[in-house]
């Protein structure tokens, strides 16, 4: 059973979906497993930095184990 997404997770899932070209709705989804690359991570980092108002690096996107973990790190930053 897929867990529901928080508001910030929905916002980030929309960014991932747009960049990856596929629907992202699972909070345990992994950016790299979904076909992400360093170039796509750079697009995510740029868009997310603007939308979340906090500096997000390419490394942040790549090393996160899941969408939920990534958003959790943003919320505690």
From TrEMBL:
<keyword id="KW-0597">Phosphoprotein</keyword>
<dbReference type="InterPro" id="IPR009081">
    <property type="entry name" value="PP-bd_ACP"/>
</dbReference>
<dbReference type="Pfam" id="PF00550">
    <property type="entry name" value="PP-binding"/>
</dbReference>
<protein>
    <submittedName>
        <fullName>Enterobactin synthase component F</fullName>
        <ecNumber>2.7.7.-</ecNumber>
    </submittedName>
</protein>
<keyword id="KW-0548">Nucleotidyltransferase</keyword>
<keyword id="KW-0596">Phosphopantetheine</keyword>
<dbReference type="InterPro" id="IPR036736">
    <property type="entry name" value="ACP-like_sf"/>
</dbReference>
<feature type="domain" description="Carrier">
    <location>
        <begin position="3"/>
        <end position="77"/>
    </location>
</feature>
<keyword id="KW-0808">Transferase</keyword>
<dbReference type="GO" id="GO:0016779">
    <property type="term" value="F:nucleotidyltransferase activity"/>
</dbReference>
<dbReference type="InterPro" id="IPR006162">
    <property type="entry name" value="Ppantetheine_attach_site"/>
</dbReference>
């Amino acid at each position: 059973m897929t867990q529901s997404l928080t508001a910030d997770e929905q916002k980030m899932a929309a960014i991932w979906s747009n960049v990856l070209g596929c629907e992202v709705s699972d909070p345990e989804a992994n950016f790299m497993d979904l076909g992400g690359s360093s170039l796509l991570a750079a697009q995510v980092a740029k868009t997310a930095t603007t939308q979340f108002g906090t500096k997000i690096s390419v490394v942040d996107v790549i090393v996160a184990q899941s969408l939920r973990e990534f958003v959790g790190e943003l919320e505690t930053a």
